[in-house]
Amino acid sequence: MKILVTGATGYVGGRLVPVLLDRGHDVRTTTSSPDREQPWWADRVETVVMDALDPQQVADACEGVDAVYYLIHGMGGEDFARTDREAATNMADAVRRHDVGRVVYLSGLVPEVDDEELSAHITSRREVERILSDTPATVVVLRAAVLVGSGSTSFEIIRQVSERLPVHTVPTWMDSLVQPIAVVDVLEALAGALDHEGPSRHYDVGGPEQLRYGALIEQYTKHAGLERPQVEVPLLPTALVGQLVGSLTDVPQLTVEALVESLHHDMVAADDDFLRLLSDSHRLVGLEEAFRRALAEPVSSPEDADPMGPMPQDPVWASGGDERPVAAKVADAVKDVLPRP
What we know:
The chain is an alpha/beta fold. It has helices at residues 11-22, 55-62, 80-97, 120-133, 153-164, 183-192, 213-223, 238-248, 253-260, 287-294, 326-337; strands at residues 2-5, 26-31, 46-49, 67-70, 102-108, 138-144, 147-148, 168-171, 177-178, 181-182, 201-204, 211-212, 230-233. Helices cover 36% and strands 15% of the residues.
């Protein structure tokens, strides 16, 4: 099958491409920065330049492909919803123009609340789902919450907050359930979505365990051998928490603030229908094993690396962030959230 993978230099896309190649697919990837260093698998794929906001480039990238993985989304800034809408519309137009048969989109879990209670981040993801689904293609949407693996935005936030804060202050409004999932399980489901039979639909994807956010952080600290007392704090504004966590971690601030906004509601799978996308031999990875593999040391050859662990194309803020002393980072975080004189 001829497959286009957009967002192939991102966290999930960079790990998905070798999975598709190993399964015998012919893969085309996109890049918006052809001059930067290419991923380790680049010589095995066709790469085209594509700006998701350029309709002609998107159309050219879709020519002659059987399926598209849409792994593009914004995570912050005042215009991210508009940008997501425009990029998804360009892709939908290209899918219609070239009669692409299948689109697979990785989205976020949608809590069971009224639309006006949804975060801007989740609202935008769902709007993209609707735009892509309004095409003749079979559209398979996978909705996930926290992805566990080195380099995952959610995991890096958990890791860096756990390691840098001597005491974990957990807002009382963050007492929601979450169902984390190992990135290798998501990769298996994404690859299996090519074989989905039937009409367009979404699948909620989640790992074997559901737990509250505080318990998730506590499990990580225990696994990492850290001692971090946890204190619940009432009346902490969401914006303040997002600003503090964004300042404390090396993950881009706007991305952190967008994710924190989504923590008010339970983020768990409504069912386990996605298991039908997995191969018979695939076993879901439990949280303890996921933590262990995510914290593994990098290996010299990416071809032999566990996708759960560090990979060469991961962002600079992955693998625990930069090497500045923790005390300096905490001091900077406090300074960022204090009111200016």
